[in-house]
Amino acid sequence: MHNSTPIARRKSKRIHVGKILVGDGAPITVQSMTNTRTTDIVATVQQIQALERGGADIVRVSVPTIDAAEAFKIIKQQVHVPLVADIHFDYRIALKVAEYGADCLRINPGNIGNENRIRSVVDCAKDKNIPIRIGVNSGSLERDVQKKYGKPTPEALLESAMRHVDILDRLNFDQFKVSVKASDVFLTVQSYRLLATRIEQPLHLGITEAGGIRSGAVKSAIGLGMLLSEGIGDTLRISLATDPVEEVKVGFDILKSLRILSRGINFIACPTCSRQEFDVIGTLNALEQRLEDIVTPMDVSIIGCVVNGPGEALTATIGVTGGHNKSGFYEDGVRQRERFDNERVIDQLEARIRAKAAMLDKNNCITVNMIEK
């Protein structure tokens, strides 16, 4: 595996979202959000469990009504991943879900009414040791902010965010994180850059309403990649109009591409040409689906010919290089005597990758035990 990229992280306070640490150098976490009706308890629990299996560190659940809050109580009892309760205007819902075990409240304090209502939510959060996420969105700025700036600008998003921050500061509450999202990449990036210099709290990254799975993933990778490479960001969500599990996959892929996180398989595959000796695209697609359960960090190179194949295989955990009828097999950069039958390369590769993952996990376990002793 490649070494991690030495990105200097922005210093921030640490908060706890359930069992998950956010900020102060803790690993960057990947979040998603359910898109089921929260009152449909069975469907929502099933989706949260799917997100858990996909590796989501934190899941957000919309709680727009008191009925949804009652459903949230039951949902919380049936899942293990920390849950963020998404509330917008009704402070009574925030108080309910806090009592029901929410691990974080996504609520903008300036939107829930008078000082007494705000104080009641903050006091409850203090009592329950629950952090708050301030979430500013370019599509829902306050009217006076919209009028002042004419359109969403980085300065407008910053001003909106600081209004809510100032309220929490006044109430001596510092356990919060902040997001300033827009659907425009450059507006988002500049807004976070400004905010990063103004507060010490963790930052939740995202390009809001990014779009479909392809275009949204590209926009998110560009915007979040710029920020993460500058050390900005402590947790993230990829907002895609698709199955939420895909959001988690894209989030992890972004972190892996920047070498911020080592989790699962990093596939290296050629785009294919007439030199390929086996179906590289079909092999890659099949292995990505079959090996989603593997969380052991490893590089796997799948190259269809001998032009670039050996070079890529030399730096990979597992590598295959296309050859006539049979393809070369590499492990830890060393070519093995064994060769793969091109007609059975998918099954053979899967078996070798799973065996390697099991061996690496065992070795890591032994190393950890020796260190602990």
List keywords for this structure.
single chain, 373 residues, alpha/beta, eight-stranded parallel beta sheet, five-stranded mixed beta sheet, 15 strands
Brief summary of the model shown:
With 373 residues, this protein is an alpha/beta fold. It has twelve helices and 15 strands.
Structure description:
The protein has 373 residues and is α/β, with parallel strands linked by helices. The chain is 43% helix and 18% strand. The chain is built from 12 helices and 15 strands. The protein has helices at residues 41-53, 66-77, 91-99, 115-128, 143-149, 154-170, 185-196, 213-229, 244-257, 280-290, 309-314, 345-372; strands at 15-17, 20-22, 29-33, 58-62, 83-86, 104-106, 132-137, 176-181, 204-205, 235-237, 265-269, 298-303, 318-321, 326-331, 334-341. The strands form 3 sheets. An 8-stranded parallel β-sheet has the order 8-7-6-5-4-3-10-9. Strands 11-12-13-14-15 form a 5-stranded mixed β-sheet. It is elongated. The model has no long low-confidence stretch (mean pLDDT 94).
